[in-house]
Amino acid sequence: MKIQKKDLQRKLTLSGVAALSVLLLLVAEQFFHIGLVERLELASLDFRHQIRGARITPSLSTNVVVVEIGEDSFESLPDRWPWPRSYYAKAIRNLTKAGARVIGIDIIFVGKDPHRPENDEELRVMIREAGNVVLAGRLDIDNKSYRIIRSSEDYGNEFFRTDSSLGFVNVLKDPDEVVRRYVPSAEYLPSFGFAIFNKYFYLPPFLTPYRS
Fold first, then answer.
1. pLDDT tens readout for residues 47-100
2. Residue 181 pLDDT
3. 3-state class of 24 per DSSP?
4. Which label site among 95, 121, 142, 173 has the fewest CB atoms less than 10 Å from its CB?
5. Which DSSP helix (H) or strand (E) runs through 186?
6. What is the distance between the alpha carbons of residues 47 and 39, in angstroms, rounded to a whole number?
7. CA 139 – CA 148 distance, rounded (Å)
């Protein structure tokens, strides 16, 4: 009787764990709007990455310099954010003179300059003259059921038509809202990093790994 009772308890425990697992997956499906199979595949992907471990990253190169906008930047400059666009024109001019082959500006310029209209024209002229600038843009890809096409698409950046070298900076997440991968292109537009790659090697601005 004791053995049968233990077997029964074990079966009930396993059944309870199985039922709880299914319940959690169903809750995840409702919360994240993803199916059971897809949720299992994403969990499997996480597990495989843990087994693989961290990849060895390339050593740092002096050929690539990242200029960060931090608290020191806000404190050292006289104007408040958003800064006059003449600042970026001067930065492009100085970096080009210093030998920069490509200048990627990971800032989306929306609307007109809030300080002076002349700042916009100064930045446009500098982008055209330098010919080495890559701009940042955004895609309307939140809704998978349709794609918004504008007659004058600018990807949210006021200066897109000044130079068509532009890459998207959307953070593309998996259905469970986790970022697991780098996407080099979307909607026939290269990512910001891939757009810099194109500019560096004098390739067409909209070249992507999937469209040559």
1. 777 887 777 777 777 788 888 888 888 888 899 899 999 999 999 999 999 999
2. 80
3. helix
4. 142
5. strand 185-186
6. 12
7. 9
Residues 6+ apart with CB under 8 A from 108: 136, 137, 138, 156, 157, 169
The count of other CB atoms within 10 Å of the CB of residue 194 is 21
**Does the pLDDT at position 2 exceed 50?**
no
- Contact status, residue 113 vs residue 119, Cβ threshold 8 Å: yes
Q: Is-contact 174 28, C-beta < 8 A? A: no
Distance CA 141, CA 150 (A): 14
pLDDT tens digits, residue range 124-134? 999 999 999 99
- Calpha distance 190→197 (Å, rounded): 10
Place of tokens 């757009």: 195
Which pairing describes strands 185-186 and 133-137: parallel, antiparallel, or unpaired?
Answer: unpaired
Between the alpha carbon of residue 64 and those of residues 12, 100, 103, 197, the distances in Å are: 60, 9, 10, 12
| Among candidate residues 63, 62, 130, 136, the one with its CA nearest the CA of residue 105 | 136
CA distance 56 to 73: 32
Kindly report whether the global pTM for this prediction surpasses the value 0.90.
no
Q: Crossing angle, helix 36-52 and helix 2-32, to 10 degrees?
A: 100
> DSSP labels for 60-81?
P-TT-------HHHHHHSSSPS
CB 136 within 8 Å of CB 192: yes
